[in-house]
Every structure is written in structure tokens, then in C-alpha cells.
């Protein structure tokens, strides 16, 4: 996997595990390749981004992705999902209802952040929400490896899902619970008072030696996540 994926603009994180930082919003998408299944973590901000992502993964693996994990319900992480027809989609408990109820808000948010109006409307009209909801933890069997989905929020949103890929090293896809390229964004749907505790759960999930993959920015270590937890606690007046 290593050479061809890196040449195609992906960053190798562990055997069979890679991520890519997309242009425009610098959102991270991930992929975990198993013997029988391929898991994609987040799908980009538009149908076009999702279609390009799916085509690239299919070309590099010789197989089509089969499963998607959505880390949280923001436009830049979910609006490419409809390009993955036939995939089983996983999200935190309640995310399906939120995406049905807040479609217009999602469309307006995408447009406000620079997605072209027709592209945003098309993506929202064809949006695919989670088929499987994670309340605590859920293990996915990809054939020769298992991946753990963990509902570690709320924090950045009310529906934050982390993806743990066991191995050496262990890899944790954090969504926007962790951001490296800027200050973590707390929008109107954030739950700041519980965000530091969500990062404690994230650290417990991955451990001290894991590679933590933020929703935006470079891969970080446990020390960075711990420092960001402390910064958020101070910012929002949360006692640790």
C-alpha cells in the first residue's frame, strides 16, 4: 500500500491505514483496508469530493469501499457520503435524526463556508445518513483486522465518533474533537462543558503511544491531545 498511496497524496499511518488532507477546508479523510472490507472515515464537503475519493480508493486497492464512519455531522465531513452508494454508514447515536431535521441548516452552513450553492443543494438533497448508530462502542470486522468505533462525545458536537485502528502504532481518527491547524472550533452545536471529558475518553481509547489524527491539521501525539484538553478546559471554565 505504502508507495502508491503516498504518491497519490495520502499519508501512511500504519500498515493498511492512511489519511488524506483535502483542499479547500483541510478536512481529513481516512481509509482502513481489510481483507474483505474497506472502511472510509469521513467523505468530504461535496458529492464531487466524495466521488473523487471513492474513485481514488478503488483504483489504489482494486476494490470499492464498503463501509463509512462519519466522525460528526458537519458539512465538510459528511456531504460526500452520497457518492458511496451501497456502503454501510456508521455514526454516533442520534446523528441520523439530526441530519434529517437539520438539512437546511447544513446546506446554509456549507454555502456560508464557500461551497457553491448548487453543489451544496445537490449534496444535501442526496445526503446519506448513518444506517448503524453507535451508542457506546462497536467493533467492525474488516476480514483480517478489527476496527473499533467509539461514541466518545459530546464535545465538538453532540454526535462525536472516534475510530480506533489497533496495531503498531495504534491510530485514532478523532474528527474535530482535535484540531492541529488552528484553534478548535466551538460552533452553536458544541457542548464546551463536556469537551475536555471527551478528550479524556479519546486518550483512554488510544493510549499514550497512539497516533491521533485530527479533523484538520497534522497527525499529533497524546501529549498534544492532553494539552488541547487543558486549553479547552481553561477556555470554557471547566474544572479538570
From TrEMBL:
Keywords: Hydrolase. Transmembrane segments: none annotated. InterPro entries: Metallo-B-lactamas, NDM-1-like, RibonucZ/Hydroxyglut_hydro. SUPFAM superfamilies: Metallo-hydrolase/oxidoreductase. Gene3D superfamilies: Ribonuclease Z/Hydroxyacylglutathione hydrolase-like. Residues 26-216 form the Metallo-beta-lactamase domain. It comes from the Bacteria. One of its GO terms (molecular function) is hydrolase activity. This is MBL fold metallo-hydrolase. The lineage of its organism: Bacteria, Bacillati, Actinomycetota, Actinomycetes, Kitasatosporales.
Amino acid at each position: 500500500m505504502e508507495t502508491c498511496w503516498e504518491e497519490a497524496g495520502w499519508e501512511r499511518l500504519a500498515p493498511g491505514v492512511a489519511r488524506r488532507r483535502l483542499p479547500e477546508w483541510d478536512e481529513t479523510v481516512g481509509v482502513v483496508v481489510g481483507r474483505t472490507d474497506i472502511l472510509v472515515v469521513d467523505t468530504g464537503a461535496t458529492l464531487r469530493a466524495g466521488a473523487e475519493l471513492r474513485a481514488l480508493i478503488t483504483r489504489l486497492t482494486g476494490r470499492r469501499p464498503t463501509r463509512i464512519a462519519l466522525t460528526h455531522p458537519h458539512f465538510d465531513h459528511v456531504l460526500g457520503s452520497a457518492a458511496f452508494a451501497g456502503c454501510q454508514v456508521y455514526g454516533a447515536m442520534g446523528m441520523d435524526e439530526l441530519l434529517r431535521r437539520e438539512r437546511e441548516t447544513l446546506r446554509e452552513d456549507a454555502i456560508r463556508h464557500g461551497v457553491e450553492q448548487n453543489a451544496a443543494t445537490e449534496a444535501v438533497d442526496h445526503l446519506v445518513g448513518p444506517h448503524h448508530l453507535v451508542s457506546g462502542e462497536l467493533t467492525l470486522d474488516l476480514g483480517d483486522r478489527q476496527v473499533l468505533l467509539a461514541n466518545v462525545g459530546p464535545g465538538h458536537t453532540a454526535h462525536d465518533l472516534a475510530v480506533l485502528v489497533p496495531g503498531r502504532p495504534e491510530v485514532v481518527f478523532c474528527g474535530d474533537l482535535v484540531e492541529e491547524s488552528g484553534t478548535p472550533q466551538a460552533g452553536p452545536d458544541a457542548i464546551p462543558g463536556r469537551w475536555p471529558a471527551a478528550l479524556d475518553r479519546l486518550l483512554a481509547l488510544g493510549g499514550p503511544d497512539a497516533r491521533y489524527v485530527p479533523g484538520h491539521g497534522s497527525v499529533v501525539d497524546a501529549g498534544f491531545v492532553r494539552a488541547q484538553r487543558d486549553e479547552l478546559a481553561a477556555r470554557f471554565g471547566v474544572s479538570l
